[in-house]
Amino acid sequence: MGVTASWQKDEYDALGVPYEQRGQVLDDTIGACRVLWESAPASFHSPTVNFDGMFCSPRPAPGERIKVWFGGKFTPRQIRRVARLGDGWMPYGGLNMAIQQKADAVATLRQAFKDAGRDPATLDICDGLRSVDGSLERSMAEIPAMAEAGINVIRVHLRRFSPGPDEVLSVVEGATRRFEEFRALRA
C-alpha cells in the first residue's frame, strides 16, 4: 500500500482536516491500521484516531504483513516514518534525485531500520523507470544501476512506452521479456 501525506492543501481543506496536521494524521492512520490488521477486537488511541473494541475483517493471516510504502520527500521525518511504521519508500520523479542521491537515501534508510531494531534486508525501495527517449530497451538498461543503488521494486509506467491502448499488450510482453535478464539482480 503506497501512501503519502500529500502536498495538496485543497485535498485537506475539502475534508476539513488541518493541512498542518497531515503528517500526524498519516502516522496515526497507519498506526491504527497496523493494530486493526494484527488483532481483534482492537483498540487504538492517538491525537487523531481513537477507537476501542473495533474489528477489521478480512485481515492478514497470522504472520502476514501488509506492506506500507511511503512516498514523498526524503526528510528526517520521512526517514523516521518509514523506519517506525513502514516497509519501504517510493521516491518520485518529481523529487529530481540522481541515482547516487537515491543510493545515499537507501543507505540512510537501511541504517534507520537497523537502529529501529528492524532487518534492513526487508526494506523495499520502489521507484519508477524513467523514460529514455521513449525507448523501453534504453530505459531498461538503467535497471542495473537502480538495483546497485538499492532499488528492489521497479514500476514501469506503460503510458511512457505505449503510444496508445492498442499497443499496451506488446509493451507488457516486451517489458516481461527484457526483465528476465534482471531477475538475478539484488539490491
Count of DSSP helices?
7
Unreliable stretches (pLDDT < 50, length at least 5) are none
Strand content: 5-15%
- Report the count of strand segments: 7
Distance from N terminus to C terminus (CA atoms, Å) equals 21 Å
Radius of gyration: 19 Å
Oligomeric state of this protein: single chain
Protein architecture, described:
This protein has 187 residues and is an alpha/beta fold. It has two domains: 66 residues, no CATH class; 114 residues, no CATH class. Helices cover 40% and strands 13% of the residues. The protein is globular. The model has no long low-confidence stretch (mean pLDDT 92).
Which helices and strands, and how do they pair?
Layout: E1 2-3, H1 9-15, H2 22-38, E2 42-45, E3 50-54, E4 69-71, H3 76-85, E5 88-90, H4 99-115, E6 124-128, H5 136-140, H6 143-149, E7 153-155, H7 168-179
Parallel strand pairs: 1-4, 4-5, 5-6, 6-7
Antiparallel strand pairs: 2-3
